[in-house]
Amino acid sequence: MKLLDQYLQAIDKDERFSKFRVKAEQYGTVKEVKDGVTLLSGLQQVAFGELVEFTSGSYGYVIDLSEDRVGVIVLGDYLKISAGDEVKALGYTLAVPVGEALLGRVVNPLGEFVDGKESIKVDKFYPVEKIAPSVVKRKPVNVPLHTGIKAVDALIPIGRGQRELIVGDRGTGKTTIALDTIISQKKEGVICIYCAVGQKNSKIAQVIELLRKNEALDYTIVVNASATDPVSQQYLAPYSACAIGEYFMDKGKDVLVVYDDLTKHAWAYRQISLILRRPAGREAYPGDIFYLHSRLLERACRLNEDAGGGSLTALPIVETLEGDISSYIPTNIISITDGQMFLETDLFNAGIRPALNVGISVSRVGGNAQTKAMKQVAGRLKLDLAQYREMAAFSQFESELDQETKKFLNRGAKLTHVLIQAKNLPYSLAEEVMLIWAGGKGYLDDIPIRDINQYETRLMSNFKSKGKQLLEKINKMRSLSEEDEKALEKIVTATLTYFKN
């Protein structure tokens, strides 16, 4: 608890916390201790989110207030606390250390370094719980967040300051989409925070190694509350990650926060609530489970220039069971977020990756957060793919199809294949535009599906050698002129000729 001691010493110098100071000291008594949660009596004036100190030296965080008792989660070893112990209210809310020193590091929800490297003293703190910025401080979300994933950037564009849910069954590639997005921010100047809640330590180690291998760890902070950590840590982790992100947002920077995943976060809160004897509602969750996630995700926004001009983009991940998107937690978070990417097991098993269900997936920001170049080549793509899937399902029962229908089905199959992408290999904007343009214009219609990957590789190679200036121009201008299209056509048809030969 050295970090919390450091925080309490520094807090007196920070005017932001002055409103949380309590003049009269308050003392209470521990009534019960259970699995990381304590029930106290006597603290009549204590506030939600306030820190308390036990005689053992451990700290606690107030999470429940009722007429005759106070519920507290213990931030440390709860086995040292016994019934009858005295407890003191400290008059401050919980805060976590923030700053550039955290970049490239792994921290726990209290901001302590847990990656085995040298600890760095951080004297700037941000409160874990904070009211979301008001409407007058916000501005419209219209700056794209480039994910490097063809299907996402073309069909479900994400803007800086947006909240886009990634939802699907276990093992459908949800985390892969989030990590590819982080890797794509290498040249975008976006600070990334990956918050792991209830994950295996082996998975977190793989994530850290992947980020290091792709040179993404330098601008990324990993907040880890693993499955072996107490539920109190799992409960706090997303709020801590958000607070760290808000520091950079307040400095005018763009931030991306990935919450992996909020299903396990809800499980941790349900466990705490049941220990606190709160009435169990639907699926045994407490009645305020919606507020648990709304007060977290509402903090994601894009600030106007007067408020600093920064942004915080949230990519929460939710796991479904048997594709049931209508269960309690997914429906709650869908109603909070600005859209969702629904990953389907059947599509994943069919080799379509990312396994996006185009019909259910949506971005409520849409074309407002899409570059002009992508709008030009992918304007009708989502509608065409949705129609193709409906037509493909219907045509299975039809023995004879007219030529127009066959042509439409062939084009849809090729476009679907063009959007398939290997994991951890994000594309630049120009590369995405070039491939989708070639598919949408019908240049791939005569190529067998089994050869499309080979053609794509050849086309990418030709563009990097013969069309390097064109790629750089599209990446810089983010638009496609008639001159650019002619240059595109020249290289695409040249590659096609070479391929046919």
UniProtKB/TrEMBL annotation:
Location of the protein in the cell: Cell membrane; Membrane
Site (Required for activity): 361
Name of encoding gene: atpA
NCBIfam families, sorted: atpA (TIGR00962), PRK13343.1 (NF009884)
Family: Belongs to the ATPase alpha/beta chains family.
InterPro entries with a match to the protein in the record: ATP_synth_asu-like_sf, ATP_synth_asu_C, ATP_synth_asu_C_sf, ATP_synth_F1_a_nt-bd_dom, ATP_synth_F1_asu, ATPase_a/bsu_AS, ATPase_F1/V1/A1_a/bsu_N, ATPase_F1/V1/A1_a/bsu_N_sf
Swiss-Prot/TrEMBL catalytic activity: ATP + H2O + 4 H(+)(in) = ADP + phosphate + 5 H(+)(out)
Major location category of this protein: membrane
Domain ATP synthase alpha subunit C-terminal: 370-494
Record's GO cellular component terms: plasma membrane; proton-transporting ATP synthase complex
Source organism of this protein record: Candidatus Roizmanbacteria bacterium RIFCSPHIGHO2_01_FULL_39_12c
Role summary: Produces ATP from ADP in the presence of a proton gradient across the membrane. The alpha chain is a regulatory subunit.
Protein name as it appears in the record: ATP synthase subunit alpha
Domain (ATPase F1/V1/A1 complex alpha/beta subunit nucleotide-binding) ranges: 148-363
Molecular function (Gene Ontology), one example: ATP binding
CDD domains the record matches: ATP-synt_F1_alpha_C, ATP-synt_F1_alpha_N, F1-ATPase_alpha_CD
